[in-house]
Write a structure and sequence with these properties.
This protein has nine helices and 25 strands. With 380 residues, the protein is α+β, with helices and mostly antiparallel strands. Strands 9-10-11-12-17-22-23-25-24 form a nine-stranded antiparallel beta sheet.
Length: 380
């Protein structure tokens, strides 16, 4: 059953990606959902073989019909993309007054990619028993520790601005808000380390980022504590952000038709699968006795501050990349880094700024997965 669950997931990913490959190969045969509607309360659904699913992109293929999901359910009227690049009827003729609320569901099936005691959670929209997934996260509810996140990012033209909704704990026990609050964090570090730590300003670091989605209502679902880690503020807004932007630029088409060894390669990254994870627990030196102390934001054993963050990006063509970032304002020990990562050249479109905070390197993907996260083999 484990193998079947993984294979079916990958098979669905293959066919979705393959259809998008042919779709974006003829970009003239599409309709674009207006940017103004990306920020609305509307949630659009695709429909194939009698099954509804989330419309992830603002690009809709010629002949495809999309539907509107509002708080009252799925609207009967369908909006068909015609060959003249317009929807019939026009999309702006139907607007949701109230958004459809997202759901977080525990995925009960045995999942080898999320070993005990952690549990896999799906985030998306649940309608009439059909759960339509945006992303899934492996999370340890005992230690309140994020493990990894899996999502797909799709070819698109535009995206809504990043919203600022409140963070949601989704019923998970623990004082997340207070733990991440600056004064509480400093009090915790003062107690554990014997002195204040001026560099310890932690963001609620998104793992599945809001930028992975085009629609405001999709973006809002990422503001969940099961989707966050304590991440140094400068790193979250430094090289980690650079890598996130590169992923979006790749799938948006900024790096189509690359030149490799003076030869132009015809390649389109239409749908990318992204796995983001955290490893280890960050340690700081005690001011009085020089002991290295593992850092947690809650009760000295919950909400660990990770030592490393990684991002595995793959395409159905077989192309795969791994970016590894050190969650510290300093440079990691080279010997420690070599134990984790066999460094290789980064994608030519990824320009890491040596002056930005967050030491980031690119790793041989197969070595990295086998060495550090073997449970993600065949998944990421």
């Amino acid at each position: 059953m484990k193998a079947q669950a993984v294979n079916m997931h990958d098979l669905k990913y293959f066919f979705v990606g393959l259809s998008w490959f042919f779709f974006v190969g003829n970009v003239s045969a599409i309709c674009i959902i207006p940017k103004s509607l990306l920020t609305s309360k509307n949630i659009y659904l695709s429909h194939s073989n009698g099954v509804f699913d989330i419309q992830h992109s603002d690009m809709v293929a010629n002949g495809q019909t999309i539907y509107l999901l509002c708080n009252g359910g799925i609207q009967h009227t369908g909006f068909k993309c015609q060959s003249n690049h317009v929807f019939n009827p026009p999309l702006n003729t139907a607007m949701c007054s109230t958004p459809f609320e997202p759901s977080v569901v525990g995925i009960r099936k045995m999942d080898a990619s999320c070993p005990n005691p952690s549990r896999m959670y799906g985030v998306g929209f649940n309608f009439n028993g059909n759960f339509m997934e945006l992303y899934r996260n492996c999370f340890n509810g005992n230690s309140l520790a994020f493990q990894h996140s899996i999502y797909k990012v799709y070819r698109h033209e535009n995206t809504a601005p990043r919203p600022t909704p409140p963070w949601n704990s989704d019923g998970l026990s623990g004082g997340f808000d207070n733990a991440y609050e600056g004064r509480a964090t400093q009090a915790c570090l003062l107690t554990n380390l014997g002195a204040t730590q001026p560099q310890c300003k932690f963001d609620r670091g998104h793992m599945t980022p809001a930028s992975a989605f085009m629609f405001t209502e999709h973006k809002k679902t990422t503001f969940k504590y099961l989707n966050a880690i304590p991440q140094y503020r400068g790193i979250n807004r430094g090289n980690w952000k650079t890598v996130e932007t590169w992923v979006n630029n790749v799938v948006k088409g900024l790096h189509d038709n690359p030149i490799v060894n003076n030869v132009q390669i015809q390649r389109t990254y239409d749908v990318l699968k992204v796995c983001i994870g955290a490893m280890g627990v960050h340690r700081l030196r005690h001011t009085n006795n020089n002991n290295m102390i593992s850092i947690f934001l809650l009760d000295n054993n919950k909400i660990p501050v990770p030592e490393w963050m990684y991002k595995i990006v793959s395409h159905l063509s077989g192309d795969k990349w791994v970016m590894l970032t050190y969650n510290d304002v300093n440079i990691p020990n080279q010997q420690d880094l070599n134990q984790i990562c066999r460094q290789i050249n980064c994608h030519p479109g990824l320009h890491l700024n040596g002056r930005s905070v967050g030491h980031t390197v690119c790793c041989d993907p197969f070595h990295f997965i086998a060495r550090n996260v073997p449970h993600l083999t065949g998944v990421c």
